[in-house]
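Quick one: co-fold with 2-acetamido-2-deoxy-beta-D-glucopyranose.
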Amino acid sequence: MVGNKQQQKQLGLLMVAALALAVAPSPAWCRELYYSNSSSSSYEESASAASRGSEGPMVTAVIVFGDSIVDPGNNNNLKTQIKANHAPYGMNFTDSIPTGRYSNGLIPTDFIVQGLKVKQLLPPYLGVELSTEDLRTGVSFASGATGYDPLTPVIVSVITLDQQLEYFGEYRKRLVAAVGEEETARIIEGALFVVCAGTDDIANTYFTTPFRSVEYDIPSYVDLLVSGADSFLDKVAALGARKIGFVGLPPIGCVPSQRTLGGGPHRNCEEKRNYAAKLFNSRMEEAIANKDPKTRTVYIDIYGILNELVVNGAKYGFTETTKGCCGSGKIEVTGLCDSRFVDVCDDVDAHVFFDSYHPTQNAYKIIVQNIFDNYLQFLLA
Ligand SMILES: *[C@@H]1O[C@H](CO)[C@@H](O)[C@H](O)[C@H]1NC(C)=O
Ligand SMILES: *[C@@H]1O[C@H](CO)[C@@H](O)[C@H](O)[C@H]1NC(C)=O
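Sure, here it is.
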């Protein structure tokens, strides 16, 4: 199905050029924190700002499933090209460490745990030592370039969503061993679960490889994704989740690499990708409205705010909204965004996108604030 080795390699490269974009949630009061006028928006600053408040954590833990938007480094030890554990990724992280986060600094999951006053960073489940405290307060199982279409992670050899659920089972056992069954149940019941994927399905699997587009038109491919996402939400609820934030798709056609691949000589936003994203979003919003209220599932729109940053970037201090900061900014993602081969811009904070697929820390911060402002009350109610 995926062709021979050679084809697979070429596809891998194409996919690297096309990669994924998905964002996750966070509360209203953190607007002040993040925007607290500091000219620099360093991690330390947001972090210490987040810990200044007097109230305790707003949830017991944050548990995340999904793709590169919420992956803090789970792909680092995989045999895949989809990794961000090399410079210039992390150039604005503490000590410029390229942790595997797909940005110049923090990613949405970090802003979410800070905003909820749970901790400063959400660690990956794989590849790092996790203390009992780390386990108690949650981890991310996300894997860059995975998706709801079972073919998507296979093409690029990353972790499937079902495998992420299996890792959760392992995580739960470790938590039980550390804090006991009763406390584990309390933690899971009080946790915010975040599900964020789907961009790679559309940008990579559908629009870049031939495997699905020969068989499916956009509405029927969206059907496939909706059925995958809907059943994944049921599986997360079955883990004992009581609060789930489901992150919708961004305007995929406006991401720099997708402008380059589909937007013609002027690199316009590519309308078919945007249409697919909007169709998926409206279908999921509907599906979520019909879910069993025993698990509070909230549809979180990020299409609007990212589109706003792209269209009205100047209002938010962005002067470059169509190109990434890494390399030419038109195509470089993961393996192609590598300090050994390309330079970075000297004004990363004025860019919406860091590589040609993923937002900068600055843009992520605004996106998460927007999510907190609009959805926190529903998630925590
Ligand atoms: C924010 O920055 C402006 C301009 O530097 C300054 O006038 C204002 O007092 C600052 N506000 C806060 C809350 O620090
Ligand atoms: C990010 O890092 C670059 C290069 O070291 C630096 O010029 C820039 O000011 C940093 N931005 C932030 C927000 O720390």
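If it helps, The longest strand covers residues 62-66.
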